[in-house]
């Protein structure tokens, strides 16, 4: 199915749209729930204001991104790196330096 210069709200459920291609599309305000987006590629995408919860981002690679104001909370960080630096090591080093002298 091809949609070109259309403006519709789609309500899609229990469907297979694998292999679909979206180019110059406005999906602002869309909701994704119980969706498999594994192996997808996002290029030149505005994701500002996104809220992501209970997702599997293992193997995610982010390049040339604006992460200003980004926040991670309650996340599994094993093996995560930033510019080749292991985040677990980075946090342990920061915590050790942040403790006042004499505290264990």
Strand order of the largest sheet: 1-2
Structural class: little secondary structure
Radius of gyration (CA) equals 19 Å
Q: Separation of termini?
A: 63 Å
| Relative helix content | 10-25%
The number of E-state strands comes to 2
Quaternary structure type: single chain
Weakly predicted, low-confidence segments: none
Shape: elongated
Mean pLDDT equals 92
Number of distinct helices: 1
- Proportion of β residues? under 5%
Sheet with most strands: 2 strands, antiparallel
Helix-strand topology string: EEH
Summarize the structure.
The protein is low in regular secondary structure and 104 residues long. The chain is built from 1 helix and 2 strands; from the N terminus they run ββα. A two-stranded antiparallel ribbon has the order 1-2.
Description:
The chain has 104 residues and is mostly loops. Helix content is 12%, strand content 4%. The protein is built from one helix and two strands; from the N terminus they run E-E-H. It has one helix at residues 87-98; strands at residues 81-82, 85-86. The chain has a two-stranded antiparallel ribbon with strand order 1-2. A hairpin with a 2-residue loop joins strand 1 (81-82) and strand 2 (85-86). The chain is elongated. The termini are far apart. The mean pLDDT is 92.
């Amino acid at each position: 199915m091809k949609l070109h210069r259309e403006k519709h709200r789609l309500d899609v459920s229990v469907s297979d749209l694998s292999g679909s291609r979206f180019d110059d599309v406005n999906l602002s305000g869309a909701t994704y729930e119980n969706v498999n987006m594994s192996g997808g590629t996002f290029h030149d995408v505005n994701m500002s204001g996104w809220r992501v919860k209970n997702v599997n981002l293992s193997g995610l690679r982010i390049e040339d991104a604006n992460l200003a104001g980004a926040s991670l909370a309650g996340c599994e960080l094993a093996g995560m790196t930033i510019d080749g630096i292991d985040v677990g090591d980075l946090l342990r080093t920061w915590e050790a330096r942040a403790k006042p002298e004499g505290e264990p």
